[in-house]
Design goal:
This protein is of the alpha/beta class. About 35% of the residues lie in helices and about 20% in strands. The protein has 8 helices and 12 strands.
Length: about 300
């Protein structure tokens, strides 16, 4: 197991925080923040006739974990960038806690597929960089960074340089860097896509642990159907060309989840079918071609590759 890993028993025993209680001196269990609304969003790039996104109306409730999936080119990352204020919609609006989003801000933290850590800084210095830019004093900054390292189970790795960390550790540092700012909303753009399957499963468990403890609002984008079902309260399936909400699927399973349960397997089949149908629709319209995977003759109906992506 990777150094600094959390054991499964620790996840199940994750301590429930009272409203407003500090977690490791870093973030508060959310009360009253994190309502994200996207109202009638349309977005085009470079004067294209076809919108990247159109008619997007999405409400992410306080403390909800929403995952967006869909075929390549459906606008998943654009949706996340709109929520983060990094691009502006051509029409419609993005609203956080009743205030229009006009640009990036510390109340919305982003975690990318590429960790984006500064290689000349230690893990602790990377985590504290944003706090330093805000002018926070050294003592308070150190306490918050130490708490963030403990929160992602890297308490003994703060003085390590980036090249001394594994891929999973780097992503945990990136998550800690986002969480130490105590944002109202955490935006995650395929943060585990480049990791091996074992490390990805570990980080799924640790992200669930963080979410259970803090109840942060999370909007998460992925290509992995298994990842979506493992993590989400609600899954948004996007269509493509233009990107629209095709279907919303509620995941009525408690956290933390048993990744091997038959309920998870059935939901994976459901979401994967939605995406395959959308891919075939696009292929028919754009290329007159339709493809469907052949059924495996030697595998039973219960087999599902939870790491699969579309």
């Amino acid at each position: 197991m990777e150094a600094g890993a959390v054991r499964s028993g620790e996840l199940k025993a994750a301590r429930r925080l009272a409203p407003g209680e500090l977690l490791g001196g870093v973030v508060r269990r959310e009360v009253g923040r994190g309502m994200l609304e996207m109202r009638g969003i349309e977005k085009r790039f470079n004067g294209s006739r076809v919108a990247v996104l159109t008619g997007i109306s999405l409400e992410v409730k306080r403390g909800e974990f929403v995952v967006v999936v869909g075929p390549s080119g459906c606008g998943k990352t654009t949706l996340l960038n709109l929520a983060g204020g990094m691009v502006k919609p051509d029409s419609g609006e993005v609203v956080l806690d009743g205030k229009a989003v006009e640009g990036p801000g510390p109340e919305r933290a982003m975690v990318f597929q590429d960790h984006g850590l500064f290689p000349w800084l230690t893990a602790a210095q990377n985590i504290g960089f944003g706090l330093r830019m805000l002018g926070m004093g050294r003592r308070e900054r150190r306490e918050r960074v130490e708490g963030a390292l403990r929160m992602v189970h890297l308490g003994n790795f703060g003085e390590k340089l980036v090249h001394e960390l594994s891929g999973g550790m780097k992503q945990r540092v990136a998550i800690a860097r986002a969480m130490v700012m105590d944002p109202a909303v955490l935006l995650m753009d395929e943060p585990f896509a480049a990791l091996d399957a074992q490390t990805r499963t570990l980080l799924h468990a640790q992200l669930q642990e963080l979410w259970i403890q803090t109840k942060k609002t999370i909007l998460f984008v992925t290509h992995s159907v298994g990842e979506a079902v493992r993590l989400a309260d609600r899954i948004i399936v996007l269509s493509a060309y233009p990107g629209r909400i095709r279907r919303e699927i509620r995941v009525e399973l408690s956290h933390p989840r048993d990744f091997d349960s038959p309920q998870i397997s059935e939901l994976v089949r459901l979401v994967r079918t939605e995406i395959e149908e959308e891919v075939n629709r696009v292929n028919r319209e754009m290329a007159g071609d339709e493809w469907k995977p052949a059924a495996s003759a030697h595998l039973g109906d219960g087999f599902v590759d939870l790491g699969g992506s579309i």
